[in-house]
Amino acid sequence: MSAACIFCKIVKGDIPSFKLFESxxxxxxxxxxxxxxxxxxxxxxxxxEKLTDIPDDSLxxxxxVVKKLVKATGAENYNVLQNNGRIAxxxxxxxxxxxxxxxxxxxxxxISWPQQKTDMDGLKALLADIKSKM
Length: 134
Hints:
Layout: H1 6-12, E1 19-22, E2 26-30, E3 40-44, H2 62-73, E4 78-81, E5 97-101, H3 120-133
Antiparallel strand pairs: 1-2, 2-3, 3-5, 4-5
Keywords: Hydrolase, Magnesium, Nucleotide-binding
Pfam family, one: HIT
Cofactor: Mg(2+)
């Protein structure tokens, strides 16, 4: 836990939240600045700024809880978003996953997808490099 972290304060109960789910390792609550009705956050209780800072066992329930939220909200179209670092749009320095219903083209998350041209030899080299480090 981090004393200055808003999400750690929510986990401790120092700041109220609209809790949707809680277990020993995970907390889910409604986003207070939603992009659409049902926009929720799912967080590990373990404090870590980026995904790589969180132990695997603290991540095991995250996607199953997101699935439960999708079913409970009835969202047919939705985004699951998890940002790491400021230029990747992370605002709170505690890992969190957004479940954002997309009921229509105006509400929910908007995305741009700046695809790049691929050089197949470069892609093969990249594949070998990444696989060698896993």
